[in-house]
């Protein structure tokens, strides 16, 4: 059995390592309910939610599925859904 170990060698290096592959739940944004308060973007511990064309969209290459965005959303516009792989 081969074990691969990943290590961060310098601050900010996670941008080159796509870290979202191991999540169980994925955030799904209901853009009709979203009031664009940007709390999801502010509270995301991975900094992977970005506003694109006026919509808040998680970057699933880096999202770990923690659910902080869904918890902080005042309109409950983000659902954490079991990811199908």
Automatic annotation (TrEMBL):
Its cofactor is [4Fe-4S] cluster. GO terms for molecular function: 4 iron, 4 sulfur cluster binding; metal ion binding; pyruvate synthase activity. Keywords: 4Fe-4S, Electron transport, Iron, Iron-sulfur, Metal-binding, Oxidoreductase, Pyruvate, Repeat, Transport. The keyword Iron applies. InterPro entries: 4Fe4S_Fe-S-bd, 4Fe4S_Fe_S_CS, PorD_KorD. It holds the Pfam family Fer4. Residues 25-54, 56-83 form the 4Fe-4S ferredoxin-type domain. PROSITE patterns: 4FE4S_FER_1 (PS00198), 4FE4S_FER_2 (PS51379). Coiled coil: none annotated. Its EC number is 1.2.7.1. SUPFAM superfamilies: 4Fe-4S ferredoxins. Transmembrane segments: none annotated. Heterotetramer of one alpha, one beta, one delta and one gamma chain. NCBIfam families: PorD_KorD. This is Pyruvate ferredoxin oxidoreductase, delta subunit. It comes from Methanothrix thermoacetophila (strain DSM 6194 / JCM 14653 / NBRC 101360 / PT) (Methanosaeta thermophila).
């Amino acid at each position: 059995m081969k074990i691969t170990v990943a290590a961060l060698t310098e601050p900010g290096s996670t941008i080159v390592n796509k870290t979202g592959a191991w999540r169980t739940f994925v955030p799904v944004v209901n853009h009709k309910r979203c009031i664009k308060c940007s709390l999801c973007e502010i509270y995301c511990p991975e900094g992977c939610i970005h506003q694109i064309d006026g919509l808040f969209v998680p970057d699933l290459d880096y999202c770990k599925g923690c659910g902080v965005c869904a918890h902080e959303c005042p309109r409950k516009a983000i659902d954490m859904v079991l990811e199908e792989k």
